[in-house]
Specification:
The protein is mainly alpha-helical and 299 residues long. Helix content is 86%, strand content 0%. The structure holds protoporphyrin IX containing FE.
């Protein structure tokens, strides 16, 4: 952060400039009413600034803006003055005003003051040095105000960013933990399917050939889909996208297995027709999703 001395050095603002501004004080005083009127006419002409004015204590606001205007010509520009400017930026952020309107308003003030000098000083050189002193002072004001403005806005973003990134990290870890648990659960279920497959094979050796083969086939299908599911989950853990197609595939395979078992159980026709119908619908859904994925591939 700069001191007022730094600022004066950077803008080449000399003691002579300070004295020149002091000489403008009586003229500013004389035109104070006009300044206030024009400034507020301007602020009320813009819907955004008018809305802020309508929500403020107008008399107090007018006094603050008039005091600031007169402070431009006080002749003493020390760190106390700088603190006053710093406060202004903060005050406007709190009032919910975009810095854009501070810049635009400063442009109007500049026009007003330069016009005042042009209208009241006939000497060209005098006009030039007065204009320069005013320009430097307004630019220094805008510099400090916008710096404190940015700081105040950064503070707001920084606090929410910290909270945001904490929440995002916590949620990401939680989701990662859940995915990990899911992969472990899938591995556990897969082991059960392997056991089921062995059990089905045992049926073949016990002489129940047809049941054994069909059930083993069903279990193998499920095992194959479990592998697909785990593969999909692992990809997900590594940052890949969730692939819904695998899940539809799992349901299809489960349905095929159910149909195989249903024929073995010799279920009635309605049950078998219901299973076949469900399988057909799942097949159509699978086709539609895979078709959509071809158009918008999953990473
Ligand atoms: C170059 C432009 C401007 C300057 C130099 C300026 C100056 C000031 C000053 C000195 C204060 C008092 C700050 C304090 O000590 O607390 C203030 C407050 C305020 N200004 Fe401005 N102002 C400018 C532009 C605007 C604009 C465009 C608006 C739009 C409506 C505005 C609205 C306000 C409001 C609402 C407050 C009161 C904040 C509070 O209640 O604390 N100002 N302004």
């Amino acid at each position: 952060m700069f001191t007022m001395q730094d600022l004066r050095a950077h803008y080449l603002f000399s003691d002579q400039d300070a004295d020149l501004l002091l000489t403008l004080q009586p003229l500013a005083e004389l035109n104070l009413e006009r300044f206030s009127r024009e400034f507020y006419d301007y602020l009320y002409s813009l819907p955004e600034t008018a809305a802020i004015l309508n929500n403020s204590n107008r008399a107090r606001l007018r006094e603050m803006h008039i005091n600031w205007f007169m402070s431009l010509f006080c002749g003493i520009y020390d760190n106390h003055y700088m603190n006053h400017l710093t406060r202004i930026g903060h005050a406007h952020v709190k009032a919910g005003l975009s810095v854009h309107f501070v810049n635009a308003a400063m442009n109007q003030i500049r026009h007003f003051l330069l016009g005042l000098i042009d209208d009241n000083y006939s000497d060209r050189e005098q006009r030039r040095i007065l204009r320069e002193a005013v320009e430097k002072m307004l630019d220094m004001n805008l510099d400090v105000m916008s710096t404190s403005y940015r700081e105040e806005e950064m503070k707001k973003v920084f606090v929410s960013r910290k909270v945001e990134s904490f929440l995002i990290k916590a949620t990401e870890r939680f989701t990662y933990g859940l995915n990990l648990a899911l992969v472990l659960a899938l591995a556990g279920v897969s082991i059960s399917v392997v056991i089921l497959f062995i059990w089905d094979i045992l049926h073949i050796f016990r002489g129940d050939m047809e049941k054994g083969i069909l059930s083993a086939l069903g279990s193998l299908l499920i095992l194959w889909m479990m592998i697909e599911l785990m593969d999909n989950e692992i990809k997900n853990l590594k940052g890949g996208k969730f692939n819904i197609l695998v899940f539809i595939g799992v349901i299809i395979v489960a349905m095929i297995r159910e149909i195989l078992i249903s024929t073995l159980r010799k279920d009635d026709l309605t049950t078998q027709a219901f299973l076949a119908g469900t399988l057909l619908i799942l097949g159509v859904v699978y086709y539609l999703v895979s078709h959509a994925q071809k158009e918008h591939p999953v990473a």
